[in-house]
Design a protein that fits this description.
With 266 residues, the chain is of the alpha/beta class. The chain contains nine helices and eight strands. The N and C termini lie far apart (76 Å).
Length: 266
Amino acid sequence: MRRADTKKVIPIEVREAFKRAVDLILPFKCPVCGGVSDTEERFVNYDRLYTELYGTEPELHICGKCLSRLDASDEDKRWFLCLSNPVENDPCPGLALYMPFPYKGIPERAVPAIKFGKNKELARLFGTVLGSFLRDEGIRADLIVPIPLSEKRLAERGFNQAYEIAYPVSRINSVPVAEDCLIRTRDTGRQSEIHDSNKRAGNVRGAFEVSSSWDVTGLRIVIVDDVATTGATLHEAAKTLYKAGAAKVLCVAFAGNRAVKNAEPF
């Protein structure tokens, strides 16, 4: 006869109290490199802005080494054509993409931590930085629209990283953000797993529509995403908004892997 299991279940209140006690003793770890976070006393300005934006203190504990390596491209190398490989008969030719960071180093390590490590705080930091860059560029718009996730992907991740980036961009630039303006009509395959630019374009073709609750006629719209590679997703979203009557659309991504300046500002 097996002995009865005599282990007691520890109440959640006790577990949480224990965790808080341990947090006071052990240092926080950086979500990017895994090293010890040492920015707690030097992140005051961000803490203040975060509290203003969200009404609570941030839970981000990135280390100073990673923070100092978040290097933006030179000012004259942040503007591109949205499509890395322009196509004939493009319905929105000359569509511009603003992308201040190359997808290498810290962004390349941090984006997977956002998407697959579900680190919402990193997305909010990136949004705050991106919002400041757009403000300094003097860009004016009527609406900010994040690239939507499918219902399935949103349920898996728990949040839309494009919206988490777009929200502080919206607040810093005093432009409304419309999380529900664009709707993803189907669950597309992951663009990061498709390497052919034509197949990437086909993967997202017809994947968006404008919600019936929104009228974008005559509006200047900024579309926001975390990363741009071929630009196919942003291009398809822009095409959808133009078809619905938008007057001007600018695509914005926090980071990407382009190297050539090939478009003029919005």
